[in-house]
């Protein structure tokens, strides 16, 4: 099943004759589920059972307009982001790869957006790209075993962990949350794909390109802590709630790890993708001068 946020309403998405089409869940279920995404995650098992059943109307699917898409889980109670979770990225960042849980921080939800956006570059900012597999939690999780962890995942989506490196690394201790949470710095989408849709949800190709030049390409099988191990480790420490969002970390190829370093410039376009999920498209502009 594929779940989208269309105009802040939950929708099922299917591909029909090469076109993505959607069905509003609240309309199609006569108001039983939705209309928002948080209510769908709260009732995840029932909604997925309904979506797989015979009561979904066949004739009401309409083409998806990508400009209306928002983040698949737009109002999570918690957002987790994971650093240094691929060996090659840890190395390019100047760290030895973590053997225990990698660094965990947050991206504030005010930075969330849908998949296709224009992003304002903060003045004097070094804005970097980080394509990441994002998992959304489907039911409350506490002390979950790694072997059971996929059953706590509602689905997977693509995310960019856009990062302003000056803010991120300034001060006596790093400011990961603020440096990664400027407006528009957490584009996600285009929709959420349930784990059963993949031949192997633990091995997906992901990457991104700037103006057509590929800068990152990796596979999620190279995650040091894959999604099940992250769910197990996080849920040992905190309770995870339906709709919670986990950015799982980025593969090698970020701008900060290059020689010379390279960051996003006004006018550039960043295209990101994950196999079996879809694409994100960002264009960058200079922030308007401060008043
Ligand atoms: Zn990241």
Question: What can you see in these coordinates?
Answer:
By secondary structure, the chain is of the alpha+beta class. It has two domains: 2-64, no CATH class; 70-286, Fumarylacetoacetase-like, C-terminal domain (Fumarylacetoacetate hydrolase, domain 2). The protein contains seven helices and 19 strands. It has helices at residues 25-28, 37-42, 44-52, 87-92, 165-169, 176-179, 227-237, and strands at residues 2-6, 9-16, 19-24, 62-63, 69-70, 79-82, 104-105, 112-113, 116-121, 127-128, 131-137, 153-160, 163-164, 186-193, 205-210, 213-219, 245-247, 269-274, 278-286. The model has no long low-confidence stretch (mean pLDDT 96). Residues 81, 130, 132, 161, 247, 249-250 line the site of zinc ion.
Number of strands: 19
Q: CATH homologous superfamily of the largest domain - what is it?
A: Fumarylacetoacetase-like, C-terminal domain
Largest sheet: 12 strands, mixed
Please indicate the percent range of residues in DSSP E strands (runs of 2 or more).
25-35%
Number of domains: 2
| Count of helical regions | 7
CATH architectural designation of the largest domain: Alpha-Beta Complex
Regarding quaternary structure, what we see is: single chain
CATH class of the largest domain: Alpha Beta
